[in-house]
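Review box. Two proteins, two foldings.
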Amino acid sequence: MSSELSQDQRAMRHSTMSMEERKKIWLEISDISEAEFDALMAHQLARQAEVPQPGSQAPDFELELLDRQRLRTGDTVRLSSLHGKPVALLFGSYT
């Protein structure tokens, strides 16, 4: 049996690690101080409190429309203007 863990095994191990264990590893592999790490985690927790939860109403926003060639049109659409119509929001990286 190989001594290396599979990707699934590493993910499983990570999910069972305590926050203190994660912090220790992060500090070992990064160049930030413990105080910087703690400040970063506090900031992330504060941001997480503002994130809409599954099942909650999405905040209203406006986006610019693209044409079939994915070029900007200058026209916009506001989420609230689509009330009662099916809407899908797709999040991802397109870089």
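Next protein.
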Amino acid sequence: MQVGLLTFGNRAIVRWNLITYSNVDDIVSAINSDQFPAGRGNTNLYDGLFRMRTELFSPDHGSRLDVPHIAIVITDGHATRNQHLTVPEAKRCWDAGIQVLLDF
């Protein structure tokens, strides 16, 4: 199992990449820890999608061509920063083969 975590507010931050944890117990422990704060400020969905595509789902961070690239994006609302860049970046994610599931 490979899981990465990225948070975004005013800007996106990769908290861990696809090769940081290798088993379910470590992933659950990391999620339940206080090692990362929630994103603060605006909702920069563009930056989250951009960093997901270019950093999180890159071979350097553990991405493999032989497995599906699935992202679950959880947000408190619509983009409030770089709004004009969000839809084009979402299309680039789709073109890169990343299946993005969005939940408000």
